[in-house]
Here is the input.
Amino acid sequence: MRPAVVEPAVVEPALVEPADAEGLADFDASLHPQDPWAYYAWFREHRPVGWSEVHRCFFVHGHAPADTVFRSSHFTVEHPFRRSRQALGPTLLDTDGPDHTRLRPFVNADLTGTAVRTLIERVVRPTAAELATRMSALGAGDFVENFAMELPLRVAVALTGLDPADRYWLADRLRPLIDCLDRTTAPLGPAADARDALEAHTAEVLRKGLGRGGLLGRCAQADGLDLSEAEIVRTATLLLSAGTETTVCSLANAVVCLLTVDGVQEDLREGRVSVTDFVREVLRWQPPMHFTLRYARQDTELGGVAIPAGAAVQLNLASANRDETVFADADRFVAGRSERSELTFGRGRHSCPGNRLAAAEIEYAVDELLARTTSLSSPDGTVPPVVGVTFRRPRSLPVLLRSTR
Here is the structure.
């Protein structure tokens, strides 16, 4: 029987204890909103690729089959009812073939080479220093609200060329879109309204030549650009949404690791571990996004399981990143580990084009925080859990900062 082609739901799970994972007949998104890892491990061992009758899609939990899907031409991101396409319209995120070939270099122009190095030095580094200085001077505060939300927003606004003074208005419009991308249970109506407002604003900036550098500034100066106004505007909206939430999650999760992994602050401060290696392990061990979606172009096989044409396939990136056949002692945080096979940013033609920028934001944030403090700790000795559906982070993260000054 061929499964119906539908948008699979990664839904808020029932509260199931880890011991109850064995024997479950179906995959229900995660074991527990606070601790999915034992659940993922059970499926990696017993059902690395499996059909979910509840969600009407296949789930891929193992590293090897997930890597195969990323690289194989038998799978595609394209589907008219994919949630991201309903929320954002057709973008680089869910386009293959000639359209993807046109759009990818257009996006890469601002995310590679001199352009991204300039953005890092002009915006990322000074903003991270400013926010770290402010938090260390206060001595305490919510890291999510005072740092993790602010840094990626400023960077995404600079990347697109929109006015920094509009960033909080933009953030308000982005929230319904991000909620829609995070949960298929979130209503499409508010997301569509927010998208329309963002697109109207961006189109006006583009038409009037008001872009302040970045993508919109570049487009205003380009002749013969092989993209329509609608494609440019949608790409700007995609960069705003994709460039904020995943980096907010990564920044917050990095500080969770600073607060909870034994000895890591001391190792970083004393130079036994580099910030680059620490951030890479954060992205493997506690990735910002757990699931990404593909569709089978044709009848195929994956991990010994028959996948019919048109079937939806949910790739569990977080589970693949803790696959014991690839990563030694996979559940342990090991900064500087030799394995370099994490799937956090995807693989192949749809790997995340902003991975270098995102990593730089996290690295500078950690570096600046460590440079301005002698210790980071939790005010009451407890650290809020990492929660979420697709995007995962603590909702708030109170931190005490003992300043070097």
